[in-house]
Amino acid sequence: MDCRIFFFADGGTEPTRASMPQPKVKLVVTGDDFGYCPRRNHGIVECFQTGGVSNVSLLVNATSALDAAELAKIHLIPIGLHANLSEGAPVSQNLKGSTLLNEDGFFHGKTGFRKVLSSGQLNMYEVEQELRAQVKRFCELVGHLPYHMDGHQHVHVLPEVREVFAQVLADFGIRYTRIPVEPGLHACPLIPPHLHEFYIQVQKDALSSVEVFRRHGIRWPDVYLGLTTMGQNMSIDNIKQALGYALGARCLTNTLTTPLTGTQTDEIAAANRPVTVELMVHPGYPSHPQEGGCGQGPDDFSLSEDRQHELEILTDPSLLAYYKQESIQLCAFRDL
């Protein structure tokens, strides 16, 4: 977003964000899995144009990644990398027989990746090789480095992987990542028990990754949201409730997850600035069977009607009016 002052012939200036009232919340609404299939791409672009998302995350090994990159250029969509180590085929051409891959040459899957990692059989050099290949592929597709980089299915906060992930971010100068620690997650009654157990483990891993990313100079928003508002659990009321949790949990979240500011003056300034929040979303239209994915076809998550449900909620005029009413400013990672 452009914050320059433009002078007009009459000597006046155009109002800028610096002269406008300070928002209470700077909200990054990230549409994940951009590139997964043509219908996902279409829905995400529609959502961006309507004001429902402000930022996207690209799967560079997905079948429609090139199309997604072109759409991001055409529509000036802020874009980052959704690094993928768990679904589909790798980007690197040097991973034949890799511990990252099963006997069919594909990644092990969300659960399988974690099993191989916990068994101690995952080669971290191969992880690093694939992550670097995906960053380079992103640059080839988009024309610049990612504004942010996180892990598909939250693999970036897992033990050992987070060390490699943070080093790759630092080496490329990518400043922002995602720390999936969500206020209100423990008490959320909407999530099925098996998913709730997985999300709680994701949160534990995320908390353990904080010092690793901090040590490498990587940053992230004050608050993360998205696990309690995914799919059919997304509603305008649930988004409002999640944002309420975010505001209420600011102090705790700053202490646990955000990089330390150092001086007392810095701390006072931080207390007076807007809360920064990332809301992870997955809008789109359901994939056609056999069209999309990352080399193995679309999964149930992408085939479901949940994608379109999220799209409809995120673009609902009453939600967009709520943002304006509550001084919630949508922005992208590059604007933070």
From TrEMBL:
One of its GO terms (molecular function) is metal ion binding. It comes from the Eukaryota. Its cofactor is Mg(2+). The keyword Chloroplast does not apply. Keywords: Carbohydrate metabolism, Hydrolase, Magnesium, Metal-binding. Probably catalyzes the deacetylation of acetylated carbohydrates an important step in the degradation of oligosaccharides. Belongs to the YdjC deacetylase family. This is Carbohydrate deacetylase. It comes from Clupea harengus.
